[in-house]
Design brief:
With 155 residues, the protein is mostly helical. The chain contains nine helices and no strands. Helices cover 72% and strands 0% of the residues.
Length: 155
Amino acid sequence: KGESTLEWEKRTAEAGHVENQVKLGWRHREGRGVEASDELAVAWFRRAVESDDPPALDHLGWMLKQGRGCDRDDVEAVRLFRRAAEARHHQARFNLGLMLKDGRGVEEPDPLEALVWLGLAARIGHEGATRARTELETMTDPEVVRRARALISKR
């Protein structure tokens, strides 16, 4: 009998297959077919981050933001979200936008940059980003909103 999908994922992840490292991290975070363990999830995400994988950067950033399986570290979460967002990872763009909107991991809230990242994620149909952008626009100086829209149109 051949190996199961899970066995294959583990074997290839241990051999350095980045996509399967991310899958195992997700499986451990969610308890899907393996022991639910935030610590093991973080360990697998960290291994995948060594390859600068955008989904891994986003997943590890989220774990750091939540303090799940590791100490909460908003500054590092923003750094990871930014790396993934710059690589066009839409969920990371959303997560980075939220962090900047709330002033987490940065000196102070940055509505302009938050609107840009949320707008880029919303542009491809990310519903959470669309809601967050709309909400932030109602609370932000109209000139800042105009500048954010101009920056988005150039990307």
